Amino acid sequence: MIDMNVLINQLxxxxxxxxxxxxxFRINILNETVNRxxxxxxxxxxxxxxxxxxVLNIDSSARPSASTVSALFAVSxxxxxxxxxxxxxxxxxxxxxxxIKENRQxxxxxxxxxxxxGFMGIPLxxxxxxxQAEIAVFFAAVLNIFFNLSVFTYGVLLIxxxxxxxxxxxxxxxxxxxxxxxxxxxxxxxxxxxxxxxLEAVNHTVETVGDLTPxxxxxxxxxxxxxxxxxxxxxxxxxxxFSVIKQILLPILLYPLYRLLISDDLLFxxxxxxxxxxxxxxxxxxxxxxxxxxxxxxxxxxxxTILSLVTIPLVLYLCRxxxxx
Length: 325
Fold this sequence. Notes:
0% strand, 76% helix, 14 helices, mainly alpha
């Protein structure tokens, strides 16, 4: 597993930046209009640069093997096929035992499946994996291809399950800069392309712009959390139970399956840590777009994001104690 001291230090650093973003919103340096522009900057410019740079900077002698990349594809596809089934079963159990509202069933399912593997996951991997950061980001970028394909196909339909309001698929959403940059990264990986020494300035520019992603993303997370009604966030016990299920129980129970299916240690660490991420911000975006219960989505995103700063190292520690790895 990843060095726990390194991971905890990176989580503390990210938490401090989240707090700065929170404070900047509260004192009106950031606001919802600025947040939208920062979001667009990250999605369209800095994160694609970070993904592309990660592949460009992979040392030829350390390139992942074809079998490892094939395993990455297989595990990513398998996750987004199996998790909807598991989420459906769990939410039906929660519906009976916790009396969750019928119109929130789809939101619960969606939030069990889709974690913040982009805005929070990629910056954390980029910061925590040291010499292997480029490969870790490349793995995460490929996972994001299937994340986006799933979100904007069955995810859009799923989030409205149990609600009278109708959701619909918009195929143009599949042509996002994140997907396109990840596909370009795959092409760079396959061709083993690198800029010649004469164009080193281009490579350095891409790297410099990409390095803006972690601090900008965490500032945006903090600012987004600050825009949510603080007084209403902590008043629903079901959200805490859901958070424990998603961020502690499920990962611990599924850890042996991950370990069984993924033999490459780095790929395993990347995939499992991405699994530990809090609920993805896209849940709030879709709830807003389709006039679903966005207040509920805000609560879950807020609480799971804050709790993840503790649950990520906690789950890794518990897995190490339980499974002896």
